[in-house]
Amino acid sequence: MFDAIAYFEDKNGKLKLTKGNYTFCKVSGLNNMEEVIQKMKSSTSFLAVDDTDDGMTVKRGGAWFNRRSVFIYILKKFKQQDQSDRKIKVEETRLVHKSLLSKLIVDKHVVPELQLFDDNRIPFHEVPGMFVAETCGIYFSIMIEEPINLEYVASEWE
Questions:
Q1: Which domain holds residue 72?
Q2: pLDDT for the residue 142
Q3: Which residues partner with 75 through β-bridges?
Q4: Rounded mean pLDDT of the chain?
Q5: 8-36: b or e for each residue (b if 16 or more CB lie within 10 Å)?
Q6: Residue 146: what are its φ and ψ, rounded to 5°?
Q7: 3-state secondary structure string, the chain?
Q8: CATH number for the domain including 15?
Q9: How far from the centroid of its chain's Cα atoms is residue 18's Cα?
Q10: Strand 45-50 with 63-77, pairing
Q11: What is the mean pLDDT of residues 69-89?
């Protein structure tokens, strides 16, 4: 099973742009940025991952898979009411986003847990306005499929 938290925490420590500059956080949704809020006083840049999203079971090529989404947030604090500072910070988060995507695409071919990463469609969004205590940035989601055995076992039923 793909461990998104470990994967992105590792990448945060290896990408030159984020290493030592971005604080890694685990969160549980766009409205629950717990660790980001807790670390606001000590950091200005965040790479946060939410792997708590619900998934779905899908059939593909005669086999069954659990498809789940993982959300990745790239956030930077900016000076309130300073749109030029905000623009600079958003541009940096776009560069981090591009670098993370390019690494995911390369890793799909070498990390076994990423072999079923769906790289045909990777939606991303710019964080609107001011978000979580004067932060701006980008968030994106990836879809991971994992095989599941749905063989019917009659002995499990009365």
A1: 4-156
A2: 93
A3: 46, 137
A4: 90
A5: bbebbeebeebeebbbbbbbeeeeebebb
A6: -130, 130
A7: CCCHHHHHHHHHHHCCCCCCCCEEEECCCCCCCHHHHHCCCCCCEEEEEECCCCEEEEEECCEEEEEEEEEEEEEEECCCCCHHHHHHHHHHHHHHHHHHHHHHHHHCCCCHHHCCEECCCCCEEECCCCECCCEEEEEEEEEEEEECCCCCCHHHCC
A8: 3.30.2000
A9: 14
A10: antiparallel
A11: 91
Q: What is the pLDDT of residue 60?
A: 87
- Structural domain count, the chain: 1
Decide if pLDDT at 53 tops 70: no
Write the single-letter amino acid at 36: V
Backbone angles phi, psi at 71, to 5 degrees: -110, 135
Residue with tokens 């619900």: 54
Whole-prediction pTM value? 0.89
